[in-house]
Amino acid sequence: MLHTFVVGLGRSGEGLHLPSLAKARAREPTLFAPGPVVGFDPFRTSAEGVLMVDSPEEAVRHAPPRSTVVHLCTPPHLRSGLLEHLAELGYRMVIVEKPLALDLVGLASVARIRRRWGLDITVTTQWLDSALTRRLLAVLRGRAFGDLRAVTVLQNKPRFTRTVDAPGHPTAFDVEVPHALAVVITLAGGADIASASLEDMVTDRTRLPRLGRARLGLRHHSGVLSQIDSDLTSPVRERRIVLEFDRALLTGHYPCSAADHTAQLRVDAQGWEPIRSVFDDDALPAFIRAAYIRYAGSRCAPGTLATQIEAVRLLTEAKKLCASGTRGQGVDSVVGA
C-alpha cells in the first residue's frame, strides 16, 4: 500500500490531483495506504482533507519515502531543486506535472538528478490513459483501415484569467501542447519539426507575448504528418483529434473540463455508414491508478518517460524556431535539407 505526498497545492495539485486521487483511492482502496494525503506548499497552510506539513523533512514522519508516491505539482522552472531535495530525503517514486522541463537545460538537470538518485519519474500526461486514446490505439494496431497517414489535434481553451493571475508558463507551447504531443508521438512515433508558430494573447488591457496560440507541424519518422493547434484565446472549448487512415477518418473529442468526463468518437469508413460512440473518459484518475499500480509492482517498468523526453526536445526546437522567426507566422524547419 502506497502513501501520497503532494508538493504544490495550486491549480494542479489541489484542483486536479487531489480530486482525482480521491476517485482512484475509492476505486482501488487496497492500493493506497489509509489516512489522509500529506501536503506541502510554502504558500498554503491548509487544504481540505490534507495533512499539511511545514517542510518536506516533516513529511518524512507521515509519508515514509520508500512507500510514498510524490506528486510534484510545482511550476517547471522550480522543479529540479525540489526534485533533488526530495531525492535527498529518500523519495524515489515521483509523479511530475507536465511539462517535464521547459528546455534542454532543464531536461538535463532533471536527467542528472534522476540518474544520481535512481528516481522513477512519471509525467502527468493523462491523455495517454484516456479511454479515447486507447480506442484510437486499438484501431491503429488492428490495421482495419490501412495505414495511418495524418493526425490533427485542435485544443481550443480560453485561458485569459488564469494566464494573467498565474503566469507560470513562458509560452503557449507549455500549457496544453505537451498533452497532445505525447498522444501524437505515441500514435505515430518520433518526429522532426516541420513548422512552428506562436501568437500573443491580446485583450483590451494587455498583451502577453507568446501566450495566445501555438501551432506545431511534425514529420514523423514513420511517414505520418501531424498538426497540433492550441488556441488559448478561443471563445469556445474543444479538444478534438482527427486520424486519417487509408480508408477511414476517425474524429475524437476529449472531455473539455471537470464538469463532464465524457468522450466521443466518430468513424467515417469507406463503404460503411458513419458510427458514433459516446463513453465515459475520466482520464486523470485512470492515469493515477495506473501509475500507482506500476509503482506497487515492477518499478523497473519504463512507463512513458521516453515519450516525455522526446516531447521536451521537440518543444524546445519549436520555441527556438519561433524565436528566430517572425512572431505569429509559421517558421519552416531545415529538417532534411
What descriptors fit this protein?
337 residues, alpha/beta, nine-stranded mixed beta sheet, six-stranded parallel beta sheet, 9 helices, 15 strands, 32% helix, globular, disordered C terminus
Descriptive report:
The structure is a single chain. The chain is of the alpha/beta class. Helix content is 32%, strand content 29%. The chain has 9 helices and 15 strands. The strands form 2 sheets. A 9-stranded mixed beta sheet has the order 14-13-12-11-7-10-9-8-15. The chain has a 6-stranded parallel beta sheet with strand order 3-2-1-4-5-6, with helices on both faces. Helix 1 packs across helix 8 (283-296), helix 3 (79-88) packs parallel to helix 4 (104-117) and helix 7 (177-188) packs across helix 9 (305-324). The longest helix is centred in the last third of the chain and has 20 residues, at 305-324.
